[in-house]
Amino acid sequence: MKFRFIILLFSTIVTTVAKAEITLPNIFADEMVLQRETEVLLYGWARPNEEITVFTSWDNATMELKAGNNAKWEIKVATPKAGGPYEIRFKGDNEIVLKNVMIGEVWLCSGQSNMEWSANSKIDNRDFEVENANYPNIRLFTVAKRTANYPLEDVAGSWAVCTPETMQDFSAVAYFFARKVQKELNIPIGLIDSSWGASCAEVWTPASVFETHPELVTAHELIEPNQWVTIEKSTLYNAMIAPLTNFKIGGVLWYQGESNTANAETYHQIFTKMISSWREKWNNDFPFYFVQIAPFKYGRPNEGGIVRDQQRRTLTLKNTGMAMTSDISTVEDIHPQNKQDVGLRLANIALKQHFNLLPDQEVYGPLFESAMQEGNEIKVSFSHAQGLYSKDKKNSFFEISNTDGKWFTAKAKLKNGFIFVSSKEVQNPIDVRYAWKSTDIGNLYNGAGLPASTFTSERKLKRLENE
């Protein structure tokens, strides 16, 4: 007992000593980017009641504060228009100077392996892309992988200027997004990559969501363990997202869903709850743009199509956007190597919806809008459908259901911007769906050359093991 007391006392002393000088979270470091034209929180640890001064060079302002009894401190500062480099000085018993700090756009990039996927993991035109990745105003931060059973206060990682050496191990999708946005806005871009291959949405979702939505706990039980990452709920949120929620960001990019095909029918629920919970934690209704998963040979024949439709339905959540990828993928590879167009499509959505640029450019493929029965046909209308056409002139990816809920392959004809779907086997059609199989690479496009999203007009999906 005495020995255990000595260990506890020693641990307390070490912890106290560790916090006896100003310490910053790892997200505050040289080369960092702060969100422009807003109020950001600077925070850290120090000796309890230590007096601290903070100096920001962009406005030559010096602010004074005192650490609390819990050794924590924080202060809000206003950031100017995009620019830099700047310095931030923290002075108390010790002094920390952050150099080469830029002000611009900060975007968090998260999800599973297709977000984590780097140039070194193999992408199209890899050597050319790496050799030309000199962008001093793009800054990269990779959050180290770890799990936790409760929310942590800090992440491991460091900022780096984008160079051929640093870009090649960073998220390729995030990099191509930033390259396009930086070119159009001509401002610094900071990317925070917090992703982990094979992760399901539940591990990125706060525990509070499951406490109020027990049905999501039940749905999570359908996900089987894998060799790459834990499936334990909230563990990656706790370790890799929660520590960042005090750090102001401009938006989120998300590429995930492949690991939720086992409980595909409830993906819309967990995904929308996750997005809303992140916005609540940040106290910021930031834009949240995500990538629709690509066609692939998943487990059940239709589970990939179900997830794609569930992602489409998530667009009803305000300030969201979805990049479709069925035309730049292969059913043989769950990791499409064309990351350039994925990043570009996300960037175009951000530029149009968030930054109010590209007024004449279409950034979405056709999206299902409504279905109406007209005799033995179903008339389907789409948004983002100007110039609607079938790439091979055969609309062969449509199905319709009868009154018994049984689905049949259907013929589709394009007329006056609408699709009319019918089948000789169905006299009283009820619902219609498109590109529903996991491996379906549809052939319906708009005039911008962007593919239509998978959809079903069914209001509520029933889980069928053979679907």
TrEMBL record:
Cross-referenced InterPro entries: SASA (IPR005181), SGNH_hydro_sf (IPR036514), SIAE (IPR039329)
GO biological process, one term: carbohydrate metabolic process
Keywords, in A-Z order: Hydrolase, Signal
Domain Sialate O-acetylesterase residues, every copy: 105-350
Signal peptide stretch: 1-20
UniProt-listed Pfam families: SASA
Keyword Membrane attributed: no
GO molecular function terms noted in the UniProt entry: sialate O-acetylesterase activity
UniProt protein name: Sialate O-acetylesterase domain-containing protein
Lineage: Bacteria, Pseudomonadati, Bacteroidota, Flavobacteriia, Flavobacteriales
Species of provenance: Maribacter hydrothermalis
